[in-house]
Design brief:
Radius of gyration: 19 Å
Structural class: alpha/beta
Strand content: 15-25%
Oligomer: single chain
Shape: globular
Largest sheet: 11 strands, mixed
Order of helices and strands: HHHHHHHEEEEEHHEHEHEEEE
Distance between the termini: 29 Å
Number of helices: 11
């Protein structure tokens, strides 16, 4: 097993491959943190699973750190570390990005068409459940026509594509929504909504506006999200889905936060559910390359800043981590 990267390496990688081109502020901050011995000592004093750049930076932002220079951020971090540390220990990275529905929609629509059934969605690591409503948004792929959803506001999610993905002409019929999370968030709770807002990177104002629209819609008809460990709950959630529906278990940027052994258990559990006669179950995994043990990599060179979308273990696309791009294989 490869040696885990140091905290300095994690922050340098985050700056280079994740923040670059997406958030100039986070790119600068993480690049500087990777060379700042005093700040690295503070972060290394946290439990290993609490040292993630997303979590540390969001906690500081939730405490009032302004999106400015690194020197200003560093001063705030050192002065308010006890308060920031408390948020880090209480919270977790639960980015709930509705725009990711844009990279899932072609696969969801194709599953509904091929199965000839409505869908029952089950999201693993559901957070506030904002990605459980892909039928409520509208979509524009490249410069094409808008695919309208069934929602009141029909917020348009824009997505760039390559590779000729199977774009649908309409959204699928979804009759059941559920999920599992260690700490489900309530889209109607101002404190939970403020945490989701803090997880949005500086400079991504469109994501912030979408969060408000999506949270309002979810609060009006909340999905059932159970509190618990995904490996303990997933089989029961599949069993509870309506018999007339095709079940789709999906997740995005979730399994990377689990120990490798738990990822293997989840993979094996899902594979065992896929072959049950008379019970159509599909699995959409949208994670970083190599996150799910045993799943094959897509052909060609891989951009480490992109995710890989697998359908039932087979790679079908590379995707932007916030749903901004879909490169069909």
């Amino acid at each position: 097993m490869a040696e885990a990267p140091s905290t300095a390496q994690r922050y340098a990688r985050f700056a280079r491959y994740e923040a670059r081109g997406a958030s100039e502020v986070y790119e600068q901050w993480c690049e500087e943190i990777s060379r700042d011995a005093k700040v690295l000592d503070l972060i290394d004093g946290l439990p290993r699973d609490k040292r993630q750049p997303n979590l540390v930076l969001a906690a500081a932002r939730s405490r009032g750190a302004e999106a400015g220079t690194y020197s200003g951020f560093r001063a705030f971090l050192l002065q308010d570390w006890d308060g920031i540390r408390d948020v880090i220990l209480r919270r977790s990275t639960q980015t709930n990005e509705p725009r990711r529905c844009a990279v899932l929609l072609p696969s969801l629509a194709r599953i509904a068409r091929d199965e000839g059934r409505p869908l029952a969605l089950i999201e693993v690591g559901a957070s506030a459940g904002l990605c459980l409503y892909p039928d409520r948004y509208a979509y524009r792929y490249d410069d094409g026509a808008v695919i309208n959803g069934q929602g009141r506001d029909n917020w348009v999610l824009a997505c760039r594509t390559t590779g000729n993905p199977p774009l649908p002409s309409s959204v699928p019929n979804i009759i059941h929504r559920s999920g599992v999370d260690l700490n489900p968030l309530d889209p109607a709770d101002p404190a939970d909504l403020a945490w989701l807002d803090a997880l949005i990177w500086p400079g991504m104002d469109e994501r912030r506006r979408l969060l408000g629209v999506a949270a309002e819609a979810a609060a009006h008809s909340p999905a059932r999200i159970v509190r618990g460990d995904l490996n303990a709950e997933i089989a029961g959630l599949i069993e509870a889905a309506p018999a007339e529906a095709a079940v789709v278990v999906f997740h995005t940027a979730v399994l990377a936060y689990l120990p490798e052994g738990d990822r293997e258990i989840f993979r094996d559990t899902i594979f065992s559910c896929l072959g049950v006669p008379g019970r159509p179950v599909h699995w959409l995994s949208n994670e970083g390359l190599g996150v799910v043990p045993g799943l094959s990599a897509p052909p060609g060179s891989a951009d480490p800043g992109l995710f890989v979308l697998h359908h039932n273990g087979t790679p079908v696309a590379r995707t932007g981590p916030h749903g901004q791009s879909l490169d069909w294989l």
